[in-house]
Amino acid sequence: MHTRPLFIALAAFAVTSSLIGLPGSAQVFKNHDSSAPVNFDADRIEVQDRADRVVVSGNVNVTQAGMVLNAARMTVAYHQGGGGSNLEIDRIDASGNVVVTKGNETARGNVAIYDLNKRIITMLGNVSLTQGSNRLTGGRVVMDLNSGRSTVDGRAAGGAGVTGGSGGRVSGTFTVPKRTGN
């Protein structure tokens, strides 16, 4: 049994978590140390060498430098890189009440998909982004890491039991500081 894909899966979390906070993206989790050690625990880990994927399931808990990812399941798809000696991650899917937290910042959704080739992170179904008392909710958030553009909308792509939960609308609550002098 090859254990290398498992380490790739954990390294993938480090890549994913560091990219969520890139300037210009949703700004949740900025300044994350992606070189810090990654720790994980789950009920089960299955390396599927012939399918080029690793499945981590059952109370998945991954931590790195104060950032925590919780989900029911995480699948990491990979392929053999140049010369067959390196494994390269193509996509990470997390499902089942996906929650990523760091300090007072949280991103939630039913499903999270990170396409490393396109550099796009998509969270679907009952999506919420919170920072302290500020909150933004919708059905889907798409973070394009190439352009730095993030879009939140009220719809969630159907399938796999993913629902928007927001009635097709985006809503938010933002704290406005008191102004003095006017």
Care to describe what's here?
By secondary structure, the chain is mainly β. The protein contains one helix and ten strands. Strands 1, 2, 3, 4, 5, 6, 7, 8, 9 and 10 form a ten-stranded antiparallel sheet that branches. A hairpin with a 2-residue loop joins strand 7 and strand 8. The longest helix is centred in the first third of the chain and has 17 residues, at 4-20. It starts with a helix and ends in a 9-residue tail after the last strand. Residues 1-8, 13-28 and 159-164 have low confidence and may be disordered.
Entry keywords:
182 residues; mainly beta; single chain; 51% strand; 9% helix; 10 strands; elongated
Poorly predicted sequence stretches spanning 5 or more consecutive residues: 1-8, 13-28, 159-164
* Gyration radius over CA: 17 Å
Terminal Cα span:
69 Å
The biggest beta sheet reads:
10 strands, antiparallel
* Shape descriptor: elongated
Q: How many individual helices?
A: 1
SSE ordering: HEEEEEEEEEE
Count the E strands: 10
Going by helix content, strand content and strand pairing, the class is mainly beta
Strand content: over 45%
pLDDT averaged residue by residue: 76
Level of helix content?
Answer: under 10%
